[in-house]
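Issue: ligand-bound run for zinc ion - logging full I/O for the record.

Environment: standard queue, default settings, no custom constraints.

Inputs:
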Amino acid sequence: MLTRTGPWRQAGQILVISAGPPTWGPTVPQSPLPSGAPSTLGKTNTVNIQIPASGLTTANATLEPRPSRTEAEAAVRTLLRWAGDDPDREGLVDTPARVARAYEEFFAGYETDPVDLLARSFEETDGYDEMVILRDIRMESHCEHHMVPIIGRAHIAYLPQGRVVGISKLARVLEVYAKRLQIQEKLTAQVANTIEQVLKPKGVAVVIEAAHQCMTTRGIHKPGVTMVTSRMLGAFRDDASTRREFLAIIGGQRANVIEG
Ligand SMILES: [Zn+2]
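Outputs:
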């Protein structure tokens, strides 16, 4: 779980929670970005996408019954053969089972309802109604077009209106959506929309900056490219000074990208 042992700062009346390396869940490595992902997030070749505040995007319905583990492993065997290798050689014989287990981890987000995660909130806040920000949350997802990793960081903020939620829950909402097949734009919108829908705060802001391995390891092979997506709702959308305050707190460079 994300704990409150990390650095806390008071910037005026703004509560800043620096997540640092995420510590929730057993499967998230503590290391910084893996090789292949840029270590200069937000510094170079940034693509910026502003997400319109339109309707809520919901999870895809499952139309067919879920295949069995045996069927999934058989599919991996087929891919191994199709790649040109022999699935029966020693090094590959357990690979289908390993891949199936890995997929259970990568796509565990289909098992959890993010709305339920936020359902338990607290009213005893002594009237705290300033910005709450969880920043630099490591994010691991998979691109729905190529099924390869999207690795990056997210920053989530909201302006409470009577109710607050345990800070680890914000990171968990991100994690649940990230552990599904995604495009970054949809992921950003889903996190913001869910927080707005359940907590009904005065505003929500979500910024995600991530490297897509489908761009860095295949296709146009552009390492160092980071995509930045943002979704601003309520006060973050309507009030430029609130938005600037948030962007300044998560980092000046990002602020320039998103404002500019
Ligand atoms: Zn892709």
